[in-house]
Amino acid sequence: MFDRCLFASLLAAVLWSGSATTPAVAEPTCPRIISQSPYITHSLKWLNLDHCIVGVSRYDPLDRPPTGGVLDPDSAAIAELTPDLMLTSDWISAGKWQAAAPAGARALRLEGFGSMTEIETNLYRISEAAGVENGGSRSRRFARDWRKAAARVRGRGRALVVSACRGVPYSFGKATYLYDLFTAAGFDVVETHEKIRHIKSGEPHESLAELLAAFSPDWLFVLTRRNGEQCAALKPRSGINVVGLDGESFFHPAPTLLKGLEQLAEQRERWHYTGQAQ
């Protein structure tokens, strides 16, 4: 299971503003779906199943009735929506999620944060549970698409991938989908910590500057553009190339990562030029 200490940070990164909710009406041919995490909603959209969603978590911007949080689902709100299929993250225990399900509803927990393969599997499991035809082929299509997109990045050099340059950032290591993604894109991700490394007081590396000094990456990928000034200030001190990216395209273990890979491919001349200069 992905590090639960990341839970609050990821929710802050992907939290969207909501609006008035739309009545929970799905098309007659649809299973009535509860999506209890934004990354699952993104997966449902990619599978053209978003019109089947009748309820979403409090973290989701989709205009549907709220059904509580990932770790604290609102069983009463869920029951009122009479779902056929309930989808959530494996951050909640199987017993607690099943207890939130009304009679007749199928309750599934999905992975995704540990690897790109988990994301592919999620698409297959969702398709199968929702009765989508050719679910396996859709999952395989995503597997082909993201690998092709990663190959177009043609990355090179040592890299660290971090959430931000300020506050309490974290670095992505092995057993995370972003480690897989950036490695497949051609970068040597040098983080040695399993899953994520929190960069804060009391940890082995108490600041981002300390982490950079320890690993000496060529590239620092920062998953937020809002830290522009703080990130830019790192380069004169370290000589490391800083690349700000749109976190919305990277923080969800879902097909939105295809947009993230497009962002990387658009900047590939930077590492090719830098590599030739070296």
Structural category: alpha/beta
Q: Could you name the ranges where pLDDT drops below 50 across 5 or more consecutive residues?
A: 11-20
| Shape category | globular
Average pLDDT number: 88
The count of strands amounts to: 10
Task: Give the topology string: H per helix, E per strand.
Answer: HEHEHEHEHHEEHEEHEHHEHH
Per CATH, the class of the largest domain reads Alpha Beta
Structure characteristics:
single chain, 278 residues, alpha/beta, Rossmann fold, 2 domains, four-stranded parallel β-sheet, 12 helices, 10 strands, 14% strand
Short description:
This protein is an alpha/beta fold. It contains twelve helices and ten strands. It folds into two domains: 24-146, Nitrogenase molybdenum iron protein domain (Rossmann fold), CATH 3.40.50.1980; 153-277, 3-Layer(aba) Sandwich (Rossmann fold), CATH 3.40.50.1980.
